[in-house]
Amino acid sequence: TLLDTAYVSSGFGQPPNHHQLRFSDGSAEAWAERSSLLKDRDHARIGAAIHSVRAVPAGQLATVARWAEERQAPLHVHLSEQTAENDACQAAHGCTPTRLLADHGVLGSRTTGVHNTHLTDEDIALLGDSRTGTCMCPTTERDLADGIGPAAALQRAGSPLSLGSDSHAVIDLLEEARAMELNERLRTRTRGHWTAAALLR
Q1: Spelled out in words, what is the top-level CATH class assigned to the domain 49-200?
Q2: Domain boundaries along the sequence of the chain
Q3: pTM assigned to the model
Q4: Cα separation of 117 and 125, whole Å?
Q5: Model confidence pLDDT, tens digit, residues 57-95
């Protein structure tokens, strides 16, 4: 799956900086027009990504979600990776990033939140009730000192879990699986959240 990423702004209400201009389409509408030229092949399908709520203005989130919905395509979004993102979203919109996505029709069973690290109980319920997936990237979250996400609580709420590598701090799916279990042990101070078989499923 090739996820073409919408990246419109460098922060809430901020235009892309000069380094980001090379991969910004300028608007979600322009992104959708360009991405529509991409076609699935026998060996690959096209999906969509909203880089983050800070990189796609709230009024343009639905454009990307609609593009994915119309094509029955997967949709990924980096979500609450850092507390700074949550704080900025609260300041700009008066809500969490998860609530902002919910209010603009982004959550759903074809959507995956990447990281989902710093979540409120309401966020967890929104993700679980909508069957929005969670892609944990433990080695990246560890490398960047981002924090430990509530993986077990998300799974219990109904959010399907998957593993990724994001910044490729380590490219080892077994290490990611091991790290998710060990992180949950550290977070909850209890052992044995997933069996080896469950982690490899």
Answers
A1: alpha beta
A2: 49-200
A3: 0.94
A4: 14
A5: 999 999 999 999 999 999 999 999 999 999 999 999 999
